[in-house]
Write a structure and sequence with these properties.
Layout: H1 2-11, E1 17-20, E2 31-32, E3 38-41, H2 43-50, E4 58-60, H3 65-74, E5 83-84, H4 92-100, H5 107-110, H6 114-119, H7 125-140, H8 144-159, H9 175-180
Parallel strand pairs: 4-5
Antiparallel strand pairs: 1-3, 1-4, 2-3
Length: about 200
C-alpha cells in the first residue's frame, strides 16, 4: 500500500486521465476519445496496479509521466513504467485495422489454426456443412481472430470457474459459437439462420 501511495503522489494521480487499450482489464469507462480508447479516472490506475494487472498499455495524459518514469528508473523500483499519451497521426480506419491485428491473448491462441480447431468439433455431416457455411462468413468479415479470442476467453473462464450465460441475441444463431461454448443454443436443432447474426450481403 505504501508503494501505491507513493505512486499516486508522484503523479498527482487524482488530476490525471489514463487511456487503457485492453477493455478486459479496465475498471469503469467514463469517456472515449475519437479512436475509441477508453478515458479513465486515474484512481482506476491505482486500482489496476493494486490488483496486479499488466499496465504496460496504459497511457497517461500528464506532463509528469517522464518524471515518474525517471524516479522508477533511478531508484530501481519494481514498478511499471507508464507511456505518455500523444496524438495519434493516423486516420481512424487505419487505426482500427491496426488494433484488430493486435489481440490481447497468448501467442498460442493467436497462432492457432482456428478453422481446423472448429472443424474438429463437428462430427455429423450436417454439422460439418453448417460449420463450413459459417466459416465462409467469418472469413468474409475478417473476424477469425474474434473466434481465436473467444477460445482463449472461454478457456480462461473455465480455468477460473467463472459462469457465463446461456446466450443472448442473434449470436445464438451461430453454430460455430455453440461449438466453441460461447452459448448453449443449438442453432441446427432450432433451425436458426446464421445470417441473422452474420449478414450475407
Amino acid at each position: 500500500m505504501k508503494n501505491l501511495l507513493q505512486l499516486a503522489n508522484s503523479l498527482d494521480i487524482y488530476q490525471n486521465l489514463i487511456y487503457y487499450t485492453t477493455m478486459s482489464e479496465v475498471g469503469r469507462i467514463t469517456n472515449t476519445n475519437q479512436y475509441g480508447e477508453p478515458i479513465m479516472n486515474c484512481n482506476d490506475l491505482i486500482e489496476l496496479v493494486y490488483q496486479g494487472y499488466d499496465i504496460n498499455k496504459v497511457k497517461v495524459n500528464d506532463d509528469r509521466v517522464e518524471k515518474y518514469n525517471t524516479i522508477v528508473e533511478d531508484l530501481a523500483l519494481d514498478w511499471p513504467t507508464i507511456k505518455k499519451l500523444t496524438d495519434i497521426d493516423i486516420n481512424i480506419n487505419d487505426y482500427d485495422r491496426a488494433l484488430q491485428s493486435d489481440w490481447y491473448m497468448p501467442e498460442s491462441y493467436k497462432n492457432m489454426d482456428i478453422e481446423k480447431y472448429i472443424r474438429n468439433l463437428a462430427s455429423e455431416t450436417n454439422e460439418k456443412q453448417r460449420v463450413e457455411q459459417e466459416l465462409i462468413l467469418y472469413k468474409k468479415y475478417s473476424i477469425l481472430d474474434v473466434l481465436r479470442f473467444l477460445v482463449y476467453l472461454i478457456d480462461t473462464m473455465k480455468e477460473h470457474n467463472i459462469v457465463w450465460g446461456v446466450g443472448r441475441g442473434s449470436s445464438v444463431s451461430s453454430y460455430v459459437l455453440y461449438l466453441l461454448g460461447v452459448h448453449k443454443v443449438d442453432s441446427i436443432k432450432y433451425g436458426l439462420d446464421v445470417t441473422d447474426f452474420l449478414k450475407d450481403k
